[in-house]
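Re: that chain you flagged

S.,

Sorry for the slow reply, it's been a week of failed gels. I finally had a moment to sit down with the sequence you sent. For the record, here it is as I used it:
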Amino acid sequence: MKKTMLIVATVLALVAGTYFADKATRVPRKTASASVRSTGMPDDPAVGTPAPQVTLKDINDKDITLADLKGKVVLINFWATWCAPCREEIPWLIDIQQKYSAKGFTVLGVAMDEEGKSVVAPWVAKERFDVNGQKLAMSYPIVIGNDAAAEKFGGLFGFPTSILVSRDSKQIKRITGIISKDEISKEIESQL
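Prediction finished late last night. Pasting the structure tokens below so you have them in one place:
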């Protein structure tokens, strides 16, 4: 009986502690404001500033820089092969790439797997995703990311993290967590 009461008291203390810690650290939502991300957190202070210059290798060992993509609207998507929400949004990214690439848009997938190319390249070559009833491969450039590149974008607080960059290389929007296909499509269309 004493053991059961001790367990119940411990569980109640943990629940109460979690509740108060959450309440103390929660960032208040701004109502009806464009400065709130889909995660409820204020937009990154980097929004409106130039995107940092980074050079990363793609899965074929070719250097890709953001400067190479200047003049295009770019959705930089930090992801990992092991990330379930990342895999969930890949079909949407393939669809968006197909829909807008002819208008000067591209997704740039930045794979953040610790093992790098040895894991990412075979995964990208093998995986197919259901896009509008078709099984398709990732149709946008994939580069191998690293912590230094992520830090240049202000660090990552989770996967996936997407940053929309305008034709003139300004950061427009940052989304931590899975994107809303409709919301990001509207953002992209407003830049094309």
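What I noticed first: The longest helix spans residues 2-25.

Talk soon,
D.
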